[in-house]
Amino acid sequence: MGRVWGMGGRGEAVQGLTFSEQQFTWNSLAIEQGRQKLRVLNSMNAAKTIRALVFAVVFTMVMSVSFLVEARDIPEGAVAPSVDPAELVGPSVPVAMPVELEDIENGVASWYGPGFQGRRTASGRRYDMNELTAAHRNLPFGTLVRVTNASTGESVVVEITDRGPYIKPRVLDLSKAAARMIGVSVTKVELEGLTPETLRDFYLNNDSTVISITPNFDIVEVPYVTLNDVRTMRSYPKAVAEMEDGDVVVVMLDEKAKPLYAVGRPQVLDLAAGSVANLNGPQAD
Fold first, then answer.
1. If 0-12 CB within 10 Å is exposed, 13-18 middle and 19+ buried, where does residue 242 land?
2. What architecture is the 95-271 domain classified under in CATH?
3. Angstrom distance (rounded) from CA 238 to CA 86
């Protein structure tokens, strides 16, 4: 076969080549071009691989430093908290939360008794020294006051039904029963109050929880649905007198927005407040 004219791989004319030689030349050029493409792809893949390795090394170093810093901040001897699986499941347990009370001027408390027994108080009710009541110079009648003996920490909740005392520096006159309960004669006390106005504000936009007073005289907020066997009482002292083991005094409002008292028995409660140690008082060993 004679020589023919052909075109080179870059478009140049190739003279004097047979058809087979020309075909071989084209094939060689194609192979060389393929090799060049492979070299380019390999170099690109190598660059990507190097970048990935560098990222992995840097990430590992950063995380190692972070773990070392966190480990250094952990106190020596610290252990991971033990979590009860039941807590993770979260049983449906109602929670009793402390009610925010108003601060009242602290001072000295005394008590009054036999000489006033049966007399009309300033509120119109007859005084009974065996009930948990007290006299204050200006707190609204019906205010519930949590009285704490500053020396012993013992507390009681009383209802303001009378006026007095008028001897300085006394700020509160307790009934005989209330004074005896926390060891007051003429004693420094700390006072917190729940006035009828505060009570109305609490129930203004609330129809699911109620204010309750525990046997330890903690004033807490509990879901109403947790209360069983609710019995309405004529007054706070009567409600306290009717409490049985496991009961609480419930403080609500009547149809005239005046304080209404009842006794109820709550289901088991998870008391979230540190000051509320046990809803039903100390338990026997």
1. middle
2. Beta Barrel (2.40)
3. 40
Residue 216 DSSP SS3:
coil
177 is written with which tokens?
């029963």
Model confidence, pTM: 0.62
What is the separation, in whole angstroms, between the first and last Cα of the chain? 118
CA angle 59, 61, 62 (to 5 degrees): 65
Contact 127, 117 (CB under 8 A): yes
Q: Where are the domains of the chain?
A: 4-73, 95-271
132 vs 153: CA distance, rounded Å: 18
Q: Which two tokens stand for residue 151?
A: 């020396």
For the beta carbon of residue 261, count every other beta carbon within 10 angstroms: 23
Q: Is the pLDDT of residue 275 over 80?
A: no
Among the listed residues 269, 184, 142, the one whose alpha carbon sits nearest the alpha carbon of residue 218: 269
pLDDT digits (tens, 9 = 90+) for 166-183: 998 999 999 999 999 999
3-state helix, strand, coil in the chain (%, to 5): 30, 30, 35
